[in-house]
TrEMBL record:
Entry keyword Membrane: yes
GO cellular component, one term: membrane
Keyword DNA-binding in annotation: no
Entry keywords, A to Z: Membrane, Transmembrane, Transmembrane helix
Signal peptide start and end residues: none
This protein's name: Transmembrane protein
Transmembrane segments: 12-39, 69-88, 100-125, 174-197, 209-228, 240-260, 280-299
Species in which this protein is naturally found: Lactuca sativa (Garden lettuce)
């Protein structure tokens, strides 16, 4: 696969072609399909959305014997590793890397682990606070020896505050689930396309296959799979819509940049003037299905195995 300049992409004649219209149709169809799925399953009157608001799913491990502090520690370490790899990659190859879908995925993965670390820390803090309160309540009950009024006067206020923070945490946990589901599909698409489509056909004479190149096209998937093995998050099918919209956003970004700046395409198959460009666009659109399906299969297999091998320790909030 060779990097080539397609000429002046800022010319109107470059975009007013049947090839671009066919490429546009693939992006438009994907956007409409994703929007319909979101409208159908994420509407305010839909029970699917309400059933997704589980605070504990964002920070509790899928096994009772596994402390949430382990998941928090893993996410913090993963965040540091991904951030270090991203910084090293940009420092080595320059800011032009932000034209690549790989860098977008790295940024998304970094946000996921940072978000997850914050929610895990918050969840562990609230869990310890509840444990301390339950222990204090037990001491009061033992001291009063059966007297009916044993709770402090501000207990109702504490309950209201706890309820408020639980609802707020559930909303952030709901957003975190969406970030997870976008990240899951994006890392599969990024690493899969690179190793199975791009890498075997690389013919760039000055292409550098370094350790850092391998890391940025592998580490994200390894860390996300490691987090998935421990967390309690799910991967419903309709959430592929957010993954699709993430890719659509990237494609539109590339089109806007090339409409105003005459520059090279980060991926030759994005060049709408290239031979068979519409076919490549439709092929990438279809690739979202197996990428998301493979990750969903991993999640489904994990829950099936854990429920059979660790029936006493396995916990599922749904």
């Amino acid at each position: 696969m060779e990097v080539v300049f397609s000429g002046d992409t800022t010319r109107l004649s470059y975009w007013l072609t049947w090839d671009f219209l066919l490429c546009l149709s693939s992006v438009f169809t994907s956007t409409i399909t994703a929007s319909i799925l979101i409208w159908k399953y994420e509407g305010s009157d839909n029970t699917e959305r309400a059933s997704s608001l589980y605070d504990g799913e964002s920070w509790m491990p899928c096994l009772k014997g596994l402390s949430p502090f382990w998941l928090m520690g893993f996410r913090m370490i993963a965040f540091c590793l991904i951030l270090a790899a991203s910084i090293a990659d940009v420092a080595t190859h320059g800011t032009n890397l932000f034209y690549y879908y790989t860098q977008w995925t790295l940024i998304l993965t970094t946000i996921y682990f940072l978000f997850g670390s914050v929610l895990s820390a918050s969840g562990c803090f609230r869990k310890d606070k509840n444990n301390m309160y339950n222990g204090h309540r037990k001491d009061i009950i033992d001291t009063e020896q059966g007297i009916g009024i044993y709770m402090p006067l501000n207990h109702e206020v504490n309950l209201q505050e706890e309820c408020y923070f639980s609802q707020t945490a559930a909303i952030w946990g709901y957003i975190f689930q969406i970030v997870f589901q976008i990240t899951a599909g994006a890392v599969m698409l990024t690493d899969g396309v690179y190793w199975l489509v791009i890498f075997p056909f690389i013919s760039i004479s000055d292409y550098e296959m370094s350790f850092l190149t391998v890391v940025v096209h592998s580490l994200n998937l390894v860390l996300v799979l490691g987090d998935t093995a421990m967390n309690s998050l799910h991967l419903p099918w309709f959430r592929i819509s957010y993954f699709i919209l993430f890719t659509v956003l990237y494609v539109i970004f590339e089109w806007i940049v090339h409409a105003f700046v005459e520059t090279w395409w980060p991926y030759p198959f994005l060049d709408v003037s290239a031979p068979y460009a519409p076919m490549w666009y439709w092929m990438v659109a279809v690739l979202h299905l197996p990428c998301y399906a493979l990750f969903a299969l991993f999640v489904k297999t994990k829950y099936t195995v854990l429920s059979r091998w660790f029936p006493e320790s396995y916990q599922c909030l749904r």
